[in-house]
Amino acid sequence: MPRIARRPFLVGLGGAALAACTSGQSAPPTPDNLGTNAPPSPNPAPPVTVNAATGPVVVPGEPLRVVVLDTDVLDSALTLGITPIGAALPAADTRFPGYWPVSRTAGIRMVGPAGAPDLAAVRALRPDLILSNQTRDGDRYGQLSALAPTVLTQTTGAPWKANFQLHAQALSRVTAAAAFASAYQKHAGQVAQALAAAKLSGRKVSLVRFTEGGGIRLFGRQSFPGSVLAEAGVGRPDPQNVDQSDFEIPPDQIGKADGDLLLYATYGDPERAGKNATLASPGWQALGAVKAHRAFPVEDQLWFQGIGYTGANFMLDELQRFLGFPGA
Known about the structure:
Layout: E1 48-52, E2 55-59, E3 66-68, H1 71-79, E4 86-89, H2 102-105, E5 109-113, H3 119-124, E6 129-133, H4 134-137, H5 141-145, E7 150-153, H6 160-170, H7 174-197, E8 205-211, E9 215-219, H8 224-231, E10 246-249, E11 261-267, H9 275-280, H10 282-285, H11 288-291, E12 295-297, H12 300-303, H13 309-322
Parallel strand pairs: 3-4, 3-6, 4-5, 6-7, 8-11, 11-12
Antiparallel strand pairs: 1-2, 8-9, 9-10
Helix pairs in contact: 1-6, 6-7, 7-13
């Protein structure tokens, strides 16, 4: 199967928030009338109190100068029509996620790596709101909150839906957030129903990530991609059908990566992440999915870093096509 081409999302100004423009196929369902950063209202919105992981935080109503310090808050902001003025990405990433069109990310300033942002660069942007999580930035919360009101979730990954609602509160986009959540649930239900009707929901889908400095990692149910697969109604291989986010395996246990469908991604340099050596190894070549030509590379920034509704919608569509569902 050839590599799947990304259907770009186009965010309109006051029109449909997200629309597809290739192959005559429709995009995942999304609510209308959600534009990008709107001009300031002549009557400023009152401040909002958000119950963040650190406790109540008072943030400005309808903030416009937003800095995001991890990939989940980047997806949340862009999904809700807010283009951040600054963002931090994982250290090995040199570009913004390709599932967003360049027109949506071109004006965002890099402020250093996620987990170690350049505080001087953040200060220079004069933000009125900073979004992140305690896993990345809990140890510098005081420094960040001295620059602007800072809203942190406890962690990222599995609780992505609850985190999105918190982000929406901080961004004064609660109504829009509810519309996106409803549209996604409808989309996930349609995918699950279609796969079940095609007798594909029994397929066990394996998730493998090669990470520079982190070895070979398998992903369980308590992870962002694991939760998306669960909502699509597909199964997981026994070693990955666990209430964990992810876990590392040594190369000699690569058999745990097998499945009816195997999706793998690479974070960082493929050589240092061990991907090149693993894919050339006898153990990898002996996997049933590999021998059946059902092992496919996927984009790390989408499947493992997207962590939001826009990323999840694209993942559902890709899953259908990887499973060979007609018309997907």
